[in-house]
Amino acid sequence: MNKESNFELLNLNIGMSMYDPETDQTGMMVQPFTSNNLLELHYIEDITKSNVLLILKLNDSSTGILGNLEGMEPIDIKWTDGSGNVITYDMIIYDIKDRMVVDGKKSQATLYCVSVDAARNAAKKISRRFGKGGGEQTHEIVKELMQKEIKTDKTIETDESATKLSFVSPYWDPYTIISWLAWRSILQSGSGKKSAGFLFYEDRKGYHFKAMDSLVEQPKVRDIKVNFNADELDEDEIAVDGFTVSGSSDIFRGLNLGSYASTTFTLDMKDFKYTETPFFINDFYPKMKKLNPMSELPEFYKRFGGEEIGGSPTRIMSKVIDSAMYTEGTYTQELTRQLSQSMIRNQLFFNQSATFQYEGKQDLGLGEVVRVLKFDARSGMPEPDISGRYIVGKIYRQFLTERDTMSTQVTLYRDSIG
């Protein structure tokens, strides 16, 4: 691995509110900080979170100005990894911890920073109708919320959704509305078996409202080689020594939730139509779009049954809906089935996780697909059970001044059973 420093702070400014007694006016002063003031930097992107989190530990031995911070101050930061990748953020300080001021001058504090959009979201409660008339596609509602309600100036990338909705928000904040829409959204394009389920997250490029189905079908951007000779690497490959895979298979919890076999009784108030909708994982999983299309369910899952071989539901659910509230189309035709699929799709997407650390370029992106090639440390032979395609689900970067380099910890997800 490359042990050279891969972090250079290019810019770090904090806007400070200042009062001028001579003019009796309050203004803002921009206080610059240098790499000498930066003790630690922690940077977190998470595919399950709406905003990026940045944590800075700073010291100031001359002015003690960190002691004057109160929160909501604007902060802009820019750094590079020395390989052409520049990360830039404009944020606000929402929390200040571990602050110390000595003799009024020497100060130290840990600053928690987030996009100003997060503060705007927390302050916004919406009670109005969305999708007037025949309803509106959910990805268009997401854009409207971010642009008109949050008033973000960041890029918003969305997959097109086939789901159209007309609904009234009961004083929800914008992020809550988006989360509600994500569970009900179905990818517009593509072929094959589709399932409901979108993810909304922020990375350094902006915001993303992406279908799980489209994420798993992406081509891989690079290889992660475990227990591999780093001298033989191509430029777009990453070599790591440690690779930890974790997951859970709580069968009793799955039985209680109806994850394997369930039936939903639905009464539609529009015409008082009653329907029974069975769900079997043995019918759904083979047709589901997966990171590794050849993945199969364990043999014993056949005990949960299927539409052709029969089976008893482990959970019975009831729903009362009024489809007159929604536009006619893909969503209402199979409403109950798609909601059931959304629940199991979300569970399967995060079924297995894996983590690894490396030092190098900071160009690996959230939501990208990577191929893991795991080799046995003793024999050097590939390990097919662990190798395969994964989604980048979380990126945690850490800079410590005593090491003078930035390390990256990556959490991967895949939808394989086992």
Structure description:
Helix content is 16%, strand content 40%. Strands 1, 2, 3, 4, 5, 6, 7, 15, 16, 17, 21, 22, 23 and 24 form a 14-stranded mixed β-sheet that branches. Strands 10-14-13 form a 3-stranded mixed β-sheet. Strands 19-18-20 form a 3-stranded mixed β-sheet. It is built from 8 helices and 24 strands. With 418 residues, the protein is of the alpha+beta class.
Secondary-structure map with pairings?
Layout: E1 8-20, E2 25-32, E3 38-46, E4 53-60, E5 74-80, E6 86-102, E7 106-114, H1 116-122, E8 129-130, E9 136-137, H2 138-149, E10 156-158, E11 164-165, E12 167-168, H3 174-184, E13 198-203, E14 206-211, H4 212-216, E15 220-226, E16 237-240, E17 244-247, H5 251-257, E18 261-268, E19 273-280, H6 281-284, E20 315-321, H7 330-333, H8 335-349, E21 352-358, E22 369-374, E23 388-400, E24 405-414
Parallel strand pairs: 10-14, 15-16, 15-22, 18-20
Antiparallel strand pairs: 1-2, 1-5, 3-4, 3-23, 4-7, 5-6, 6-7, 8-12, 9-11, 13-14, 17-21, 18-19, 21-24, 22-23, 23-24
Helix pairs in contact: 2-3
Shape: globular
Q: How many β strands by DSSP?
A: 24
Count helical runs.
8
Share in β-strands = 35-45%
Average pLDDT metric: 85
Rg over C-alpha atoms, rounded to the nearest angstrom: 25 Å
- Cα(first) to Cα(last) distance is 32 Å
As a percent range, the share of helical residues equals 10-25%
Please identify the structural class as seen in this structure. Answer: alpha+beta
Question: Short description, anyone?
Answer:
This protein is 16% helix and 40% strand. The chain has 418 residues and is of the alpha+beta class.
